[in-house]
Amino acid sequence: MTGVRYLVDGEAHSQVPADDRGLAYGDGLFETIAVRRGRPCLWRRHLDRLSLGCRRLGMEMPARFRLEADVLALIGNRAAGTDPADGVLKVILTRGSGARGYRPPEAAKPRSILSFTPGSPTSMAERNPGVRLILCETRLSENPSLAGIKHLNRLEQVLARREWSDPDILDGVMCDVHGHAVCGTMSNLFSWHSGRIITPALDRCGVAGTLRSLIREQALALGIAFHEGALRPADLAQGDGLFISNALLGVQPVSRFQDAQFDVDRLPWALIERVRHLAFEPETLP
Amino acid sequence: MTGVRYLVDGEAHSQVPADDRGLAYGDGLFETIAVRRGRPCLWRRHLDRLSLGCRRLGMEMPARFRLEADVLALIGNRAAGTDPADGVLKVILTRGSGARGYRPPEAAKPRSILSFTPGSPTSMAERNPGVRLILCETRLSENPSLAGIKHLNRLEQVLARREWSDPDILDGVMCDVHGHAVCGTMSNLFSWHSGRIITPALDRCGVAGTLRSLIREQALALGIAFHEGALRPADLAQGDGLFISNALLGVQPVSRFQDAQFDVDRLPWALIERVRHLAFEPETLP
């Protein structure tokens, strides 16, 4: 945990009670957030997704001022590194401690577990010749109650990520049980087809990324058609281009997916540059 | 955590490092084990399921002698209560600490988190007039890679368990996306039809309980047909009887499921009594 700083329920320590329901059942949510110049990027979007997750799981959302005070206390600490103002903030929110049994306690008190890893969150966020993706064997199971939110039940992503070790492969495309592409293990997918963006619908599985909503908004603002649809891996391979997004990597053009090669110059670069800029523009908290 | 004792990686404390992958992703497994007279019941079956889970998740299984030494150190401690020899042992095994990202560390060191709650594990395990079940709305998603094992991704069970608060309802039946009954939130289901036991297949979702394998063995030993099959809730309601199993509750006859009433006297009591006896017979560890 070298260099990583923690704040558990507002206290600077790096341990969590063993009866936490996040550990017992994955009963909670998380966000991974780029930090620039001591401020979180896309904070409101991360907060909105956390809030949606709380409603879905029937968890109490912490008071926003409390959470923001904790975030500022953690990422504003300039004592610990050479450039502590940039880094990665991770917010885990669990249903808190509980006795044995799936039933949440009547008076569950959510626990916040914040961590900050100093460094550049955006080292790969520049224009580059394109990243490589593979197709994973591990499928995403379908459950509309859990689709879209960023909950702590992530074994499918862990198993998928174990499928490759080649450092040249950035991410793996995961399909649902019907064979439709849904997400990368850590990214959202955008296929570029005849001047339109097509991205998988996420109403049955997958995580709706903060950058995904930003890409949608900016595409519409630029007059680029943006569709949610069913895409098989073959459809991804046969498009004019492919790109992925994630809160730390920003937008990354894909140069290769399985055997398919893409000319990244055909992608909508005006959109990509605009989203990259907005994705790493830090927000000022109150 | 009154009265609960913990052992984390063999050390008597009740905190877990905040970078544990069990917390971050539910990347791990657990077992809940009845303890009688200071010894765990069905220990070998629990160990076998843990071992199967480790193989499925690609985790290293701790050395058996190490795990057993920890268990004995924890449950053999007679200092903490009036009757510390009986209780509930919970074993959580996670992939251990890790940096951010789904990819397991090259040299992941699994972490064991043991807890012991003194008390009677078997308070409900006696013959009684039958328990009540309802049908849950929350579905179990399908993923053959994760089916059968007792991993830490349990949000579906948590959401299902939130569907009722009536203390007269013991458990809720969960269906898969096709509408077939799979499991209770915390139990396995056994329908009694014309002198045969029919239980849901667990190759796509659900947890294969330690008592389930015991019931199967003992049914076959008694010449009772035991089938795995597809059961809709209506099939459960229309059977001659219904019973459930769980490592702490033993075998429980069901007297009511939704609107269906059952005469528990029609159940195969010779089998049930035999399984109840074996389920709470403590095993001697080396």
Quaternary structure state of the chains depicted:
homodimer
Low-confidence segments of chain A, given as residue ranges, are none
Biggest beta sheet attributes of chain A: 9 strands, mixed
Total strand segments of chain A = 15
Fraction in helix of chain A: 10-25%
Strand content of chain A: 25-35%
Coarse shape of chain A: globular
> Which chain pair has the greatest contact?
A-B, 59 and 59 residues
The total count of helices of chain A amounts to 7
What would the average pLDDT of chain A be, to the nearest integer? 93
Written as H for each helix and E for each strand, in order along the chain, the element string of chain A is: EEHEEHHEEEHEEEEHEHEEEH
Write structural notes for this entry.
2 copies of one chain form a homodimer. Chain A has helices at 21-25, 43-57, 64-75, 155-161, 210-221, 233-238, 269-279, and strands at 5-8, 15-17, 28-36, 39-40, 87-94, 111-118, 131-135, 169-175, 181-184, 188-193, 196-200, 225-229, 241-246, 250-257, 260-261. In chain A, 24% of the residues lie in helices and 29% in strands. Chain A contains 7 helices and 15 strands. Chain A is globular and about 55 Å long. Chain A is of the alpha+beta class and 286 residues long. In chain A, a hairpin with a 2-residue loop joins β14 (250-257) and β15 (260-261). Chains A and B meet through β2, α1, β5, β6 and α4 of A and β2, α1, β5, β6 and α4 of B. β2 (15-17) of chain A pairs antiparallel with β2 (15-17) of chain B.
